[in-house]
Structure formats: C-alpha cells, structure tokens
Amino acid sequence: MPDAIEDIEVQLLLEALFQRYHYDFRHYARASIKRRLTQARTQLGVPTISALQDRVLHDPSMLPRLLDFLTVQVSEMFRDPSYYKALREKVLPHLSTYPSLKVWIAGCSNGEEVYSLAILFKEEGLYDRTIFYATDINPEALAAAEAGAYSVDRIRKFTESHQRSGGKSSLSDHYSAAYGRAVFDKGLRSRVVFSDHSLVTDAVFAEMHLISCRNVLIYFDRPLQDRAIGLFRDSLTRKGFLGLGSKESLRFSTHAPAFADFAPEDKIYQRREP
Amino acid sequence: MTGERHKAILIGASAGAVQALLAILPALPASFPLPILVVVHIPPDRDNMLVPLLQSKCRITVKEAEDKEPIEGGVIYFAPSDYHLLVETDRSLALSTDEPMNFSRPSIDVLFESAADAFGAGLVGVILTGANHDGAQGLRTVQAVGGVAIVQDRAEAYATAMPDAALQACPSAHTMTIAAITTYLTRLGAA
Question: Is the pLDDT of residue B119 over 90?
Fold first, then answer.
C-alpha cells in the first residue's frame, strides 16, 4: 500500500487519544477518519499525523480542535423530509397513547435534528409530555446544539424540508433572526436534556420510546455498529421505535431479530416484544 | 492485461453524465470481471434515477452502494445521492455525510482518493463530462499510486470543464472518446 506509514500513524494517534483522553475512535470507519486527520494535519499546519499525535498528547488545548475534525457531522434540519413525515404520520399516533414520553437523539451533533424533532412534537401536540435526551461526545457540538443558532443562509433549505415533512406551522414561528443568525426559541429546548454520551464506551441510557440516530452508524465499523445497535435495543421500551439514516439498515446486525420493520422506506424499526 | 493487474474501475461524471454512461456501461459484457465504482453529481433531494435506468440496460449488476458492503467483481456501484462514497482498506464500501467537496456530495475526489488508498496500483480512473473541477485531484492520486488515468476527449464532452481540469492535474492522462473508453474497458475485462 502506498500510504502504509500514514495508516500506522492514524492507528497510533487513535490509540493515543484513547489512552490519554478516553475518546475512542479506534473502531470508526477508517477511510473517513483518515481523510479528516489529513485535513486536520493540513489545517493545523503540522507535517505528519505523528506530529499531530505529539501535539495532542502534550497539549490538552489541542483536543477540542482535533475533536472538531474527528466528529464534524454536517447535518440539516428535517434532512430527508420523508423520514419526518413517516414519524409524524405513522409513529407519533402510537406515541400519543402514552402519558409521558422519552426520546433520545443519539449523536445530535450541532442540534439540527433536536430542533426538527422538537418542532414536530410541538406541531403534533406531544411536546409537553416528552423529555428529549440529546447526546454527543463532542462538548463543543453539545454547546452549539444548546445555543440553537444557525446561519440564516441555511434557513431556506430548512424551511423547504420542514414544509415537505408535512409541517403544520411556519418554521419562522420558531426562530428569530439577527446578525446573520437564526436563533431557535428557548421553548423548543425547555424539555431537552443535553448530555455527553458515547455509543462506543457508555452504557444503556434510559427507557426510550423513540431513538433517532441518523447518519452516525455509517461512521462506525461493523463490530461498533453492532455494539451501538445492541445499546439501542436495550434502551428501548418494548414496542419502542428506532429511526436510522436513509442509507443505514439493521440488515447486517446480529441484533436485527430484536426489531421489526415498521416503515422500511424510511428506516424506522420497532422493538419486538422481548 | 490480466485481472491480477487491474483491480477496479472508477468513473466520475457530472453534467452530461447520463448520455455518456448510457453509451459505456450497457456495452460491457455479462462476464465483466471487475468492480466499477461510479460517482455522478445529482441533486441531493432526488433519488438516483440513473440506477434503475442503467439496471434495465446493463448486462452486469447495477446498484446503489450500501454502507459496509464488500466490493465484488462484475458489479457497478453508484454513490447514493447526498452521500460520499469511500473505499475501506478491507475493500468494502463506506458512506459519509461529511461536508461537500468542490460543492459536491457525492464527490469524485473523495471516492478516487480513498480507492487509491485502499487498492493502490491497479485502478483505472475515468473522468467524463462535467462542468466543475471535481475529480481532478482524485485522478492525480490514482495515477500517483500506479493507476491508469483516462479523460474523456473534450471535443465530444457535453461539458468540458471537468475533463479540462482533470487533464491539467494529470497531463499524462490518456484522452479518449466514449467509443475508445468503451473498447478499452471491454478489453480489460476480456483479458
């Protein structure tokens, strides 16, 4: 292989991150990680990935910067409108039969999905009886999610997708725009708990009625995908729902038998009776 | 040319891709032994209609790439719309929603560079018609690791910016017409 040395360096850096800071990227899909580390190396102006390792080992202030490269996941509000439409039309009618609800947004990144779900639950009258758990491993992403401020350039796309998801309100009812930022209403996060949680190392979260984890598993290798899906299985109430990204599936997972296809087109699964 | 030497074919195309791919891919024989990985720029909100269209016309399997799928010979894998397609070193496929590269997701550069990393020598990279610069760096990487670089002849390209950028990045790439590319690939498979 032409870049065998760089592969060794990537492996060693990931090991170092784990031993020094307990961030475990060792079972992340390697091609993306390597691409991001190469970008980090260039943008941080270090000659090699080994040099990057040296810096992050000895300088904890480098960690957040490196985490930003390693965990950046570009997300949009109401990405794949048909997913939100399926939640609205097929899943929420089931959930409305419960007096109280718990929803876990696993790998919430900068929070676009959190606000999408909060708006959806408001529109369907379920918000006030729901607690949302929004988790990520990147503290800066969690802070951004909590702030709920996005560039106004992105709002047009968000608005379009919201409408295509069957939105009953106007997206502009939910934010105020100032200085090029759209800041989402505090009322949308009054029932959101933002929390640090790792699908790689942490345990079952709570008894959830819905887990939405979109475009996170694609960054994991097969064994780690399996661990995460096992965690979801054990975190769901019986007949609870799991929503994945539109190109993700449980097909290759050993835990597949624990789930039934609920809305296969939109990758929504339902936990079978144990 | 033997199957030993050649491991996979990479194709990148943008504006004008449909006509170009309809000329090349259906011509390949049912026995074609190599995997073909394709990135075409399509609007993110749309399903890739090229896949069903080519499925109905090709003699080898055409499918949308799935995450963690092992790469097999005689299959044409298309990057899904709005996802990057990457090759892992164990020669399986991976998807990602990382930022667009060159305003494109999927990006030709991302596929070509990760494939060069995973396969090393033995790749054939083909850049077809398109109105942007995506694929130029990727093709250069393919060539740098010992692969063959092919660029569609600009005289017959629907949009010339992409072939031009690719040639500028890889001046020694072979320039070929669609007919010549089709013959070249068919022969690769027959060897």
Answer: yes
pLDDT tens profile A224-243: 999 999 999 999 999 999 99
User: How far, in Å, CA of A216 to CA of A227, rounded?
Assistant: 13
Question: Could A218 and B94 be called an inter-chain contact, meaning their C-beta atoms sit closer than 8 Å?
Answer: yes
Which of A3, A76, A217 to mutate to test binding with chain B, by most B CBs within 10 Å of its CB?
A3
User: What pTM did the predictor assign?
Assistant: 0.93
pLDDT of residue B46: 60
In angstroms, rounded to a whole number, what is the distance separating the alpha carbons of residues A85 and A82?
5
Task: Tell me, yes or no, whether B2 lies in a domain.
Answer: no
**With contacts defined as CB-CB under 8 Å, which chain B residues touch A217?**
67
A126 shares contact with chain B (CB less than 8 Å): no
Number of domains in chain B: 1
Which DSSP letter does residue B105 get? S
Radius of gyration (C-alpha) of chain B in whole angstroms: 15
Give a yes or no: residue B1 inside a domain.
no
- List, in order, residues 6 or more apart from A255 with CB less than 8 Å away: A226, A229, A230, A233
Catalytic residue set of B:
14, 41, 134
CATH number at residue B83: 3.40.50.180
Domain assignment present for B148? yes
Q: B80 in a domain, yes or no?
A: yes
Residue B82 C-alpha, separation from nearest chain A C-alpha, in angstroms: 10
Q: Please report residues of A whose CB lies closer than 8 A to that of B110.
A: 35
The residue of chain A with its CA nearest to that of B65 is A247
Within A92-223, strands assigned E span 101-106, 130-136, 149-151, 175-178, 181-184, 192-196, 208-213
Structure tokens at A163: 């409408």
Mean pLDDT of chain B: 93
B-facing residues of A in 17-76 (CB < 8 A) are 29-32, 34-36, 72-75
Q: Is the Cβ of B101 closer than 8 Å to some Cβ of chain A?
A: no
**Cβ of B80 and A31 within 8 Å?**
no
pLDDT tens digits along A173-197: 999 998 999 999 999 999 999 999 9
Q: Is the confidence at residue B45, as pLDDT, over 90?
A: no
Choose among A35, A74, A252: nearest Cβ to B68.
Answer: A252
Domain of B68, in residue numbers:
8-189
How far is residue A242's CA from residue A205's CA, in Å, rounded to a whole number?
Answer: 14
